[in-house]
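Q: Here's a chain of 320 amino acids. Please give me its 3D structure as C-alpha cells.
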Amino acid sequence: MTVILVILVILVLAVAGLGAALVLVVRRPPIDQAALLEQLVTTNQAQLKTQHDLAAAELEGKRSLIDQQLTVMTDRLDRVGGLVQELETDRERKFGQLSAQLSQQHEGLSSLLETTQSLREVLSSTKARGRWGERMAEDVLRLSGLIENVNYRKQRGIEGGVPDFTFLLPNDLLLHMDVKFPLDNYVRCIEAESELDERRYRDDFLRDVRGHVKTLASRTYIDPQGGTVDFVLLFIPNDSLYTFIHEHDDSILDEAAGRHVVFCSPLTLFAVLALIRQTIDNVALARTSDEILALLGAFKKQWGAFVEKMDKLDRSLTTA
C-alpha cells in the first residue's frame, strides 16, 4: 500500500514537470530565421575578407621577393653580358693581333726565302760574290754617314795593288780595306750532302782564308812610311761567316792580327767606322778650336794696339 502510494506520487510529479515544460515552450518567442541567415552571411563575408587580405598580403610579399630576385638576376645577367662582350672584344683584338703577326711572319718567311735564293745565286758566281761584298760594304758605309771622295775612296790604285776601299783619316793617314773573300769552298761546305764532304770543304775553306790573309799582308796596303796606318781591314760580307770561322778555327783571327790584318763583319765594321767618324769629327773640332783661339789671339793683340793708340790720343788732347 505504501509502495503504491509512492509510485503515484512520482507519477504526479512527472506529469506536473512535463506540463510546466510545455507551458515554457508555448511561452518562448519564435526564432527569426532571416536574421540568423543574415548574421551567418555577414560572419562568412568577414572571414572571407580576412582570408583574402591575408592571401593578398602574402602574395604581395612573394611578388616583392620575386621582383628583388629578378632584379638581382637581371643585374648579374647584365654583368655576365658585359663580361662576355669584353671577352669577345678582347678575343677579336687578340685574333687581329695574331692575324697580323702571322701575316708579318709569312711576309718575313717569304722575304727570307727570297733572300736565301738571292744569296744562293750570289754565292754561285765568283764575280757576283765580289759585287755582293762590295755592295754590303757600301751599305754599311752609307749607314755610318761616310761620304765617298770625302771620307773614303773606291778602287783607287796604289803601288802594289788596288784596295777596294781607302778611308781618309785625319793627319793625311790612310786605311785600306779589302772586300774580296774566298768563298768557293764555303759554298761547297754548306751544300755538301755528306759529313765527310762537309768536313773536307770546311778545312779547305779555312786554308783558303789563311792563304788570303797572307796574300793581303804581303801587299803594300800596310805601309806606315807611305802614309797608311799599321793595319788593313779584311771585310767578311756576312756575320755568319765570321761566326763560322770563329767556331771552327779561331786561331785564324789571332794569326791575322799578328799580320796586322783585322777581320770585319758588317756589324764590327759598323763599329770601326763609327770610331773613324768620331775621330774625324774630333780632329775637325780640334782644328776649329785652334783656329778660333788663333783668331781670338789676333783680335786681342789688335785690340791692345787700339787701346794703346786711344790712350796716346787722350794724353795728347789733355796736354794741348
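Q: Can you summarize the key feature?
A: Residues 112-274 form a domain with the Trna Endonuclease; Chain: A, domain 1 fold (CATH 3.40.1350).
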